[in-house]
Inverse folding.
């Protein structure tokens, strides 16, 4: 059984039907020759692949930060706070989908970068390991993902 799609077809600008070779894996694979999020990116460059892994890791950490941050101050205008919470939720959902789409490249390194990004993000922003002791514990502006 073949685990990748080998050819795709498209119409070029002159109206001719053309076939191009593409390596879109349909099962987990390892290696730096992969497409992540955008067509042709990161390509076959090891440096660009490392940059893609860092990007996925950081995106996953930002998703965790947005899940546990508390920016709205007590006593703020409820309508403005509601719109701000909605905007933050929208950004978090969009970034979560970006991480999910990156993982759907079926690249093992991208999968591990996403998992470790979420883990480190939770450790830093969501767990009690790095919270300041004393004082009242603030609840996050956004409820954690379910």
């Amino acid at each position: 059984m073949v685990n990748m799609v080998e050819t795709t077809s498209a119409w070029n600008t002159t109206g001719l039907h053309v076939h191009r070779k593409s390596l879109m894996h349909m099962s987990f694979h390892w290696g730096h020759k992969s497409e992540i999020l955008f067509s042709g990116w990161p390509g076959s460059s090891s440096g660009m692949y490392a940059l893609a892994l860092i990007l996925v890791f950081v995106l996953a950490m930002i998703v965790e930060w947005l899940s546990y941050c508390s920016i709205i101050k007590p006593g703020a205008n409820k309508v403005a706070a509601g719109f701000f919470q909605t905007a933050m939720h929208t950004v978090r959902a969009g970034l979560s989908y970006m991480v999910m789409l990156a993982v759907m490249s079926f690249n093992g390194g991208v999968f591990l970068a996403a998992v470790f990004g979420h883990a480190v993000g939770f450790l830093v922003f969501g767990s009690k390991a790095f919270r300041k002791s004393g004082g009242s514990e603030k609840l996050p502006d956004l409820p954690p993902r379910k």
In short: Residues 59-132 form one domain. The mean pLDDT is 81. Residues 38 and 102 are 9 Å apart (CA to CA).
